[in-house]
Amino acid sequence: MFYEIAQTGSLSKAAERLFITQPSVSYAVKQLEEQLNTMLFLRKSKGVELTPEGRALLEYVQPAMLLLGEGERMITQVKSLEAGEIRIGGSEIFIKQYLLSTVEAFHRKHPGIKFSFIHGKTQEIVRALEDGRIDLGMVHLPLANAGTTISILEDWLAEPIFICGSQTKYAALCECPSPSSKHFKEPLIVLSSGSSTRRFIEQEAMRCGVQLMPEMVVGSVDLIKELVRMGIGIAVIHRDLVEHELNKGVLLEMPLVQPLPQRSIGIATSSKRSLSAAAAAFMQMRSSG
Length: 289
Hints:
Low-confidence stretches: none
Family: Belongs to the LysR transcriptional regulatory family.
Number of strands: 12
Pfam families: HTH_1, LysR_substrate
Organism: Paenibacillus cremeus
CATH class of the largest domain: Alpha Beta
Helix content: 40-55%
Structural class: alpha/beta
Number of helices: 11
Order of helices and strands: HHHEEHEHEHEEEHEHEHEHEEH
CATH topology of the largest domain: D-Maltodextrin-Binding Protein, domain 2
Protein name: LysR family transcriptional regulator
GO molecular function, one term: DNA-binding transcription factor activity
CATH superfamily of the largest domain: Periplasmic binding protein-like II
Number of domains: 3
């Protein structure tokens, strides 16, 4: 109200801008002057004029009002998807395999929306969701110790398979189906401890009566694929993460008598926070695409 009066130089014009009565404006000015124990306006026959104290106050109020206006415009842009950010967490290979096509399509439609990605294991992604550091997270399901803090927005099944290099000695193991226990005894290349995939492989090996003794421990699926291609060992990996290499004949699927249990992958968010307009629109594009 002070700002409108200072801008118009008139109590009546300020009242018109604010859609209130002039007596209400006069009373508010009186209250403010009493609170600050100083006169802010000089009353004249044709309006009001700022006192030196009023001009000093305006120097602080004016930048604040301009910033508020910028903030309101930014909120409008965010709500209309002209600006904003979507923060996504997950393993690099998951984001590349499952989300990148949607990211590309969304960016073309809403170029003002920025994307940021953080990489981590499922439990790290869950913590990032709980802490509010990301909007969406790609995780293996079911989640352990997540309680009611995480909501699953989308999920699907993935098929883990054994793979080997097509030009390696392990290719001979592809001639006929074998039990999982046989393959678990071969030199195995696995992800580092703590990952959901590593725990899954250890549990399956144990179910087959085999104590897992990895040949090599690495930090990425891409490195696993390359080492398998070179013949360092074999690996367990989701089929859709190696579909390209299987189609090219670079890697081979090692047939099993009994398939490994399917795994569930999901896109999660914090149940304690509402999705931003941009993140909600991103998920809507996925569901309609």
